[in-house]
Structure prediction request, 564 residues.
Amino acid sequence: MTPTETDNPELLKISGRGALVNIQVDDSVPLQAACRTLREFLARNRRLYSDGEVIVDIGRRLLLPDEPDRIRKVIESESGLRIKEFRCDTSVLERERDRIESLITMQSTTAGRANGNGHGPGHAVHPTDQTDDNANIINDDEPQGDDRATLEPAPRAERGAVPAEVVRGTCRAGEALRFQGNVVVVGNVNPGAQIIAQGDILIFGTLRGMAHAGAGGDSTAVILAMAVANPQLRIADYIWDEGTRRPSPVRRRGEAPGSPTIARVLNRTVHVSPYLKNHAIDHGGNPNER
Amino acid sequence: MSGKTIVMTSGKGGVGKTTATANVGTGLALRSNRVVVIDTDIGLRNLDVVMGLENRIVYDLVDVIEGRCRIEQALIRDKHAGELYLIAAAQTRDKDCIDSQQLVDLCRRLEAEFDYIIVDCPAGIEQGFRNAISAAQEALVVTTPEVSAIRDADRVIGLLHASDIRNARLIINRIRPEMVRQGDMMDASDVLEMLAVDPIGLIPADDRVITSTNNGTPVVYDSQSPSGREFVRIAARIDGEHIPMIDPVEEQPTSIMDKVRTLMGINRKASAHV
Prediction:
């Protein structure tokens, strides 16, 4: 007997018959196994569920955008039930929110950046600060550059408590923004722009430029972006090898703008993966806890 | 009179700054504005050729700035449009022979006499660029739907922001609707999403621009030219008229039946685009 069979009472809890059925899916097993079990169960009991509505409770699980549809297909192809609603444990949403909020505190650096002089609180370096040499867009004479050598990056556990700095607006080609802790960018990072942080980098927008997290040498730092398109990714001293083929900048009509993506170092290599799939679901937890 | 100085810039060369300057300047003059266009591409002057005025140059920008002539002597009146004047670039000098303050002073004096001063900026982001943007209250950034041009436009928009020109508006030039439909060219919304500025014109690629440049007659005079018609609309938008943006990709190629419907006055799609 394998654990995926319906006789395993932990995997699926099915209650109610006739008009309203309640299906509870154990959130510790992979969704694929749960779907298989559900399919087998419904196939065997087709007569019992030939009509009516069903409530699917997914517990503390986070679903990928296409997964509700996969569940729906299983139920509708193997029974006469119609899905009335999906339910979940709201604590999972709160946990996600808390995690993001721990990265964000509203210490905006907009003012430092807006006037373009680069000496504001955000350690922003705008290229116009510099003399005629625009080729070198990272300004090593920038005042904060000295601090960088003397400041050891805080260990991850302590950094969690360090407020992140917030950059609002588009980071454009030629801009190089440096931060000593975590940074949150609310906007796109365009090709030719650089975000360099000693801590984590979180981008609420599309990352098309360069992001360097853990710039002080912390290889546990992560880069998280709502979407990426041909980015350059660096963590500590590791550089992401993006392969040989550059994706076309042309987006097919109706194509989604991209999905949340995380980059982190595993086995001395920068790995890039969809954010939700590998962390919130398969490993059921915080990508920071490795 | 208190005129407005607008810089036409792009970062990358060859995307259509000079053509756009000639056409927007002409378009504004045809709307009864008094307009000066200034070529600041010293050493590589082009605007005079595009406007067909190269044989009329006596004094140029450097002559005015260095005091060898009065402003009026360097203002070359356009052949076609009424109150349109060109100040040509010097051909035998380089960008470093003027500084930003001198150009600011010149533009302030012109603003007293004219409605619009359009400054045609050289490619690049060096001294010539800094001079050209120094006098401007507004900027028009020209790009094409290609990654290299977009990258440079992005850089230029950042530099304009840093110089406190925050109302840059975008001209996307040489859109090829067929390629966009086939998924081989970025469409306007992709470009606008990345550059995060408002558009002021979406110009389809158009062979008639080449002919008109050869003739020295800006394409705005050519009512058959799709790009000319968009330049007319851009001039109107600069002049404060509210004209909705028309994406060349959305504009259906006109079939014979469409023309018949238009003639009969029942083609709503066509009339909406006029």
Notes: The longest strand of chain A covers residues 201-207. The mean pLDDT of chain A is 72. Chain A touches chain B through 24 residues (CB under 8 Å). Residues 31-44 of chain A form the longest helix (14 residues).
